[in-house]
Amino acid sequence: MRIQLAQRSEADELLGRSPLALLVGMLLDQQVPMEWAFTGPFTISERLGHDLTAAEIASYDPEAFAALLAEKPAVHRYPKSMAARVQQLAAYLVEEYDGRPERIWAEAADGKDLLKRLMALPGYGKQKAQIFLALLGKQLGVQHSGWREAAGLYGEEGSHRSVADVVDADSLARVRATKQEAKRAATT
Predict the structure, then answer these.
(1) 70-118: per-residue pLDDT in tens?
(2) What highest taxon heads this organism's lineage (predicted)?
(3) Mean pLDDT of 46-75
(4) Residues ≥6 apart with Cβ < 8 Å to 176
(5) pLDDT greater than 80 at residue 132
(6) What's the rounded Cα separation, in Å, for the pair 20 and 134?
(7) Kindly report the CA angle at 37 between 172 and 183, in degrees rounded to 5?
(8) Could you tell me the CA-to-CA distances from 22 to 1, 67, 181 in Å, in that order?
(9) Count of other CB atoms within 10 angstroms of residue 40
(10) 31, 78 contact by CB (below 8 A)
C-alpha cells in the first residue's frame, strides 16, 4: 500500500521508503494540519539535499537545524522547539537502534513490546505511539501478535480515527469528520 499522509506525491513517496521520515512526520503531527506535518520530512530532506539519516540530524548544530526548519515555508508552526524534538528523536535512534528506526518494529516481540518501544521514543506519548503502531499495522503490514489490542481504538478495523486510517482524500475527510464529532461530543 502506498502512503498518502502528506497528500503530496514526492513527500508521500519519501514516507513510504524511509522509516525515519515516517517517524519524524508522526512526531511533527501536532498543532498543525496532518498534511503539513507529514510533508515536513520531505522539506527537511530537500533542504539538506538528500534523504534523512538519524546520525546526521542528531549531530547537526542545534541552532543551524532550527534555522533549517524555520526557513520559509517553515516545517512546523513551532520550528525551534520541533527542531529540538526531531534532534532528540534522532539521537535516541542512533543510541538505541544504530540509527536504523525500522529495528524498532523488526525486533519487537509482539504488539505490546512494539508499543513499549514506540512509547520510549522522545516526543511519543501513549496516544502517538498507539496511532503509529496502528499505522504500521494497517498500512505497512507490520502486524505482530496483539498489535490491534496494543494500538487500542486506533487499531480497530474500519475505524477512521487517525492518520493510521488515511489512505486517500476520502478517508482523510472521514478522519477529520470523526475528529470533529469527537470534539463536539467532548464539549457538550
Answers:
(1) 999 999 999 999 999 999 999 999 999 999 999 999 999 999 999 999 9
(2) Bacteria
(3) 97
(4) none
(5) yes
(6) 17
(7) 55
(8) 14, 22, 27
(9) 26
(10) yes
**Whether the Cβ atoms of residue 2 and residue 12 lie closer than 8 Å to each other:** yes
The reported pLDDT for the residue numbered 180 is: 87
- The grid cell for 163 is 492518520
Residue 182: the pLDDT is: 83
Cell 519524524 belongs to 24
> For the whole model, what pTM was predicted?
0.94
**C-alpha to C-alpha distance for 27 and 177, rounded to whole angstroms:** 22
Per the CB < 8 A criterion, the answer to whether 29 and 163 are in contact is: yes
What does the mean pLDDT of the chain come to?
95
Chain length of the chain: 188
Provide the grid cell at 153. Answer: 481504538
